[in-house]
Design brief:
The chain has 308 residues and is mainly beta. It has 2 domains: 131 residues, Chitinase A, domain 3, CATH 3.10.50; 135 residues, Chitinase A, domain 3. It has 5 helices and 17 strands. Strands 9, 12, 13, 14, 15, 16 and 17 form a 7-stranded antiparallel beta sheet that branches. A hairpin with a 4-residue loop joins strand 13 and strand 14.
């Protein structure tokens, strides 16, 4: 996933500021947040975060006040301002507004205020454990403080819960029966995780978009944030990525992923499962990406769980 400069700065500890840039053919299909190393916060870390104050009107970018330089030895989080809305539960999709500052001098390091809140599924791996522990059980409207050490500059964040929503764990809808011949065959495990049986011959030269389950939700729009479960394979059946294997759904802005996803998922309905066969020019092109060789045709099975 191509990210903002702020997200790049924070990548070692947190990928909460991942606002995706649009139209990038070298973008990953979906983001995967990287949790911080599982170090235990010390009493000094807890005390340092307790001394930080956050002020500002709900929904507006907050002000953080703290003694500088601010340092911690491990991830630490707390609820600074309680909310009074719905309670966040494990597995909920939560929309978060985020403001980040440097621990060294308090300078702004970016965030989402003035843009759009970002969606995160409240499962391990999507947000750092310390932050997940305080967000689950909190109420909409709450503001959390989160701090993470870094090689040169600790990062301090205010994280505001804007909404929370229970979402399904897999596609829910009507199975599509009139699937054309010549496409990979998809089989679902009991939990919904897909596997495929490949077909012989040359891959299609054009994008293939084939719904396998037709959901009853609203149609996906180009600028929305989606939460999905997905698995990806090369044309020969070699797997290269799967949210199912990671154990949690992924959220991303549709405008920030490979063109095959942008074109293939826009207009599909929430609750659907979609088979995508993506030619190289709508995927990773001649250069490839990580474990994906250049010139690869890609197969994805995507469950669209929500769009907002």
């Amino acid at each position: 996933m191509r990210r903002t400069a702020t997200a790049t700065l924070l990548a070692a500890s947190l990928v909460l500021l991942a606002a995706c840039s649009g139209g990038s053919s070298d973008a990953d299909p979906t983001p995967s947040a990287t949790a911080s190393a599982a170090a235990t916060a010390s009493a000094a870390d807890v005390a340092a975060l307790e001394a930080v104050t956050v002020t500002g009107e709900p929904g507006a970018e907050p002000t953080l006040e703290f003694e500088q330089p601010f340092t911690v030895s491990a991830d630490v989080a707390r609820i600074a301002v309680p909310g009074d809305g719905a309670t966040v539960e494990q597995g909920h999709q939560v929309m978060l507004n985020i403001a980040a500052v440097s621990g060294t001098d308090g300078s702004a390091q970016g965030g989402t205020y003035g843009a759009e809140p970002q969606a995160y599924v409240m499962e391990e791996g999507n947000v750092p454990d310390a932050l997940l522990d305080v967000l689950v059980g909190a109420q909409v409207g709450a503001r959390a403080l989160y701090a993470s050490p870094a090689a040169e500059d600790a990062i301090l964040m205010a994280v505001e819960i804007m909404s929370t929503e229970a979402i399904p764990t897999r596609a829910e809808g009507t199975a599509v029966t009139d699937i054309p011949a010549g496409l990979p065959t998809v089989t679902l495990a009991e939990d919904g995780a897909p596997s495929i049986e490949t077909v012989e011959g040359e891959p299609p030269a054009e994008l293939v978009v084939q719904p396998l389950i037709q959901g009853a939700g609203a149609a996906v729009e180009a600028g929305q944030t989606l939460t999905v479960q997905y698995s990806g394979w090369l044309w020969d059946g070699t797997p290269f990525d799967s949210s199912w294997e990671r154990g949690s759904a992924s959220s991303f802005q549709l405008s920030g992923v490979i063109p095959g996803w942008q074109q293939g998922l826009a207009g599909q309905t929430v609750g659907s499962q979609v088979l995508l066969v993506i030619p190289p020019d709508l995927g990773y092109g001649a250069e490839g990406n990580d474990s994906i060789p250049g010139g690869s045709t890609l197969i994805f099975v995507v469950d669209i769980l929500s769009a907002s």
